[in-house]
């Protein structure tokens, strides 16, 4: 839950919030506050035309555009892919951190990650640079 809530906090990807909500409910775990707030915000937004219909508005409609707008994304947005890529990026950064803190030279750690994940040096460097920019200032540099 913490990882998914963190992904939602960092990326605002609603798929992370919904997956965290689903898994928390499935396993009888508490729903993280940031996730609960997002689910409630979405439900309130989607409910606006439903309340109007319930109250007799014959013109009230809910469309796929309403849903995607409530989710905060455009049509065709690949939320699942973005969720997968954010997890992969976090995993790669974590592996890099483990390697360099265990004494592996940064260049050797980079080479190992390139081989392990079939990525170019530029792709791995971009992930590490993005992580450096987003890191908590209390986290040691890497």
Structure description:
The chain has 142 residues and is mainly α. It folds into 2 domains: 2-77, no CATH class; 80-134. Helix content is 72%, strand content 0%. It has helices at 2-11, 14-26, 33-54, 64-71, 79-101, 106-117, 121-134. The radius of gyration is 20 Å and the shape is elongated.
Secondary structure: elements and pairs:
Elements: H1 2-11, H2 14-26, H3 33-54, H4 64-71, H5 79-101, H6 106-117, H7 121-134
Helix content: over 70%
Distance between the termini: 26 Å
Tell me, briefly, the overall form.
Answer: elongated
Structural class: mainly alpha
Compute the CA-based radius of gyration.
20 Å
* Count of DSSP-assigned helices: 7
Largest sheet: none
Keyword list:
mainly alpha, 2 domains, 7 helices, 72% helix, 0% strand, elongated
Provide a concise account of the structure shown.
The radius of gyration is 20 Å and the shape is elongated. The chain has helices spanning 2-11, 14-26, 33-54, 64-71, 79-101, 106-117, 121-134. The protein is built from 7 helices and no strands.
């Amino acid at each position: 839950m913490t990882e998914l809530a963190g992904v939602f906090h960092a990326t605002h990807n609603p798929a992370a919030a919904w997956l965290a909500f689903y898994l928390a409910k499935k396993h009888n775990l508490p729903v993280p506050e940031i996730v609960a707030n997002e689910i409630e915000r979405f439900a309130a937004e989607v409910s606006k035309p439903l309340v109007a219909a319930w109250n007799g508005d014959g013109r009230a409609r809910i469309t796929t555009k309403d849903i995607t707008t409530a989710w905060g994304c455009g049509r065709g947005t690949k939320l699942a892919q973005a969720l997968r890529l954010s997890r992969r990026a976090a995993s790669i950064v974590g592996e890099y951190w483990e390697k360099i803190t265990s004494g592996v030279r940064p260049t050797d750690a980079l080479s190992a990650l390139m081989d392990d994940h079939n990525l170019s040096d530029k792709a791995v460097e971009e992930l590490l640079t993005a992580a450096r920019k987003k890191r908590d200032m209390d986290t040691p540099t890497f």
